[in-house]
Amino acid sequence: MKIPGNFKKEYLLIAGAVLLLYGSYQLAFKKTIALIQVHHNLAAQLATASDLSDQPGYLERKNKNLDAIIGRYKMDSLSLRGNTIALISQIADREHVKLSEVPVEDPVYRNEHFIIQRLDFEGDYFALTKMLRQLEWANEIGVVRSITWKAVDKMPGNHAAKKLILQVCFEIGK
Q1: Distance between the two ends of the chain, CA-based, in angstroms?
Q2: Residue ranges covered by each domain of the chain
Q3: What is the edge-to-edge ordering of all strands in the sheet holding 114-122?
Q4: Do 170 and 144 form a contact (C-beta atoms < 8 A)?
Q5: What is the pLDDT of residues 105-128, one digit of tens each?
Q6: Predicted TM-score (pTM) of this structure
Q7: DSSP, residue by residue, 50-65
Q8: 75-173 belongs to which CATH class?
């Protein structure tokens, strides 16, 4: 039995392709696959090593920063009526603004997490704006939650004489 010549070429072509694939695997693909496995192992190790709960220095800095932020918003509710209102009135006096009203504490604005205290100020627009900026940056007086601008007649029949009132609501955490 005689084998045709083109049949041998096909076998040679298949054998050559298999040898070429084997040589390519040995020279290039084997190293690439090994490096991909190393990469996956290192990525897994990095993911476990970068767990922030294992870094006490980071947690201490984070707690210190959070305590500073919470301290700015939190205060004793009894202190609000005394020291805090005195501090707010000093800021108002510096800006030539009058603290005109401190309403009685309303139980509607109180819950277990915070207190809202409203204060009324009188003055001109620019002085009230400067004072509001100072109040927003001041520490230990709570956070400005809302403001309301009102123009009110000084005397009920005289529309020419108006005064400007700024109502500021402070939120204070317990």
Answers
A1: 102
A2: 5-70, 75-173
A3: 98-101, 114-122, 158-173, 143-155
A4: yes
A5: 767 667 777 778 888 999 889 999
A6: 0.51
A7: T-GGG-HHHHHHHHHH
A8: alpha beta
